[in-house]
Amino acid sequence: MEILSREYRAARAQLGHILRIGKSFDLLARPVEIAGKKATLYYVNGFAKAEVMEKVVAFLLKLTPGEADTGDAMGSAARFIARNISYIEAKPEEDCGEIVSGLLAGKLCLISEWFSGAVLIEAREYPSRGVSEPDDDRALRGARDSFVETIVSNTALIRRRIRDPALTMEGFQIGRASRTDVVLCYMEGRASKEYLDALRRQLRALDTDALTLGQQSLAERLVPMGLNPFPRFRYTERPDTAAASVLEGSVLILVDTSPAVMILPVSFFQYTQDINDFYFPPVVGSYLRMIRILSMLTTLLFIPVWYLLVKSPGRLPEALSFLAVEDPGPIPLYLQLMLVELVLDGLKLASLNTPNALSQSFSVIGGLILGDFAIQVGWMTPEIILYMAFVSIANFAQPSFELGYALKLWRMILITLVAALDGWGFLIGVVWMAGTIASTKAIGKGGKEGYLYPLIPFDGRALLRLLFRMPEGKP
């Protein structure tokens, strides 16, 4: 730990060397004179709040020697703050690492011949967008605000909904170069203490250069993803969802520059819930949840089961004979299915890179045109185009993109195993997938609840609340 020199000139040279003043146009050191003695104000142009900076500097420039005197022969930064800094958020600091970290995060740093050490003034203002409703996490009713890329604004949105001193915002800085602000948010007394201790240990043990991709970089450092596609986190951009999760005993992780928060711990069954379930009466909410569960099962199993039934002649029951494919064409059904899976993802990627004015028409019209031409030239059967379109639409019934792609990948694995091993392949795939879900580790080694909680370990009341929308105050 390097301590800032107590002598003004040495401290100015020390900070100038560490900050490399003059190399970056936006990192500035402004000399000022306070009551006849020298001082320097350091700040990052673009982070400093102009109104606050102007008021602070104007007040300091008007000080007289009698007013600026700290009454301490050695010069106390804390005493100087108490007498002369009117802005409410200011603190003394002597550690060069903390001074540089605070300065690069946007704080004002003042050193002077009047005192030793430095004064850090919280006068930063990050560029940010408005808190309008998120595009991918909408509710038919309820609040229309959302998290933004500024962590202080996000914590305020949660604090606005939970006015309880038990709500705790525990701060960390992760990354040797980025020093990204990370907040652990929980309700004292409701969140598991053992689980919180495990999360703290994991966060403090992280040794990385930077969290360049925000929450995704943090997620991949908290748990090795490997080849398991099932998500270990729930993400939300809605403050009401985050606040409700905290009150239920969950823990939030907020990362600066990320407009979403991570909800922990997570289980597979929690993906059956959505914010819209809670803005309607319990009966309607339960109905919507059942539709979501059926859609998830349809997304995963409909195409593999259909392919298993039509793969061999005579296997399809008479009652389901309308599902049969009369003329599969020159391309085997398996290759047609794989080709449609890849084309659908290609259209999604193309629509992401298409200007907003054209993206919706491109994805819809492009899919219709390609599907129609594929049928006309004999590459595809109408049944495959219809069923794959139905499955793709059903996939959007659940709000998690991560879970949607996990189900898609397992659907492709099941189709491949059916093509290779027929019925045994389907059975092997289902058992393999069930084993993968059961072996998925939840984040935080101190948590007692696994990925299949409340099924394993079994908790009937918790499972009932996840499968059905219960009235308030009911089990």
What is the secondary structure topology, with strand pairs?
Layout: H1 8-19, E1 27-34, E2 37-44, H2 50-61, H3 65-68, H4 77-84, E3 90-93, H5 96-104, E4 108-112, E5 115-121, H6 151-161, E6 167-174, E7 180-187, H7 193-205, H8 215-222, E8 234-236, H9 239-247, E9 251-255, E10 261-264, H10 282-311, H11 333-352, H12 356-376, H13 382-395, H14 401-439, H15 460-467
Antiparallel strand pairs: 1-2, 2-4, 3-5, 4-5, 6-7, 7-9, 8-10, 9-10
Helix pairs in contact: 6-9, 10-13, 10-14, 11-12, 11-13, 11-14
Descriptive report:
- The protein has 475 residues and is of the alpha+beta class.
- Helices cover 46% and strands 13% of the residues.
- It contains 15 helices and 10 strands.
- The strands form 2 sheets. It has a 5-stranded antiparallel β-sheet, sandwiched between helices.
- Strand 4 and strand 5 form a beta hairpin.
- Helix 10 packs across helix 14 and helix 11 packs across helix 13.
- It is elongated.
- The mean pLDDT is 84.
Radius of gyration: 29 Å
Calculate the mean pLDDT score and round it.
84
Give the helix tally: 15
Total beta strands: 10
C-alpha geometry: elongated
Order of adjacent strands in the largest pleated sheet: 1-2-4-5-3
Compact overview of the structure:
This protein has 475 residues and is of the alpha+beta class. It has helices spanning 8-19, 50-61, 65-68, 77-84, 96-104, 151-161, 193-205, 215-222, 239-247, 282-311, 333-352, 356-376, 382-395, 401-439, 460-467; strands at residues 27-34, 37-44, 90-93, 108-112, 115-121, 167-174, 180-187, 234-236, 251-255, 261-264.
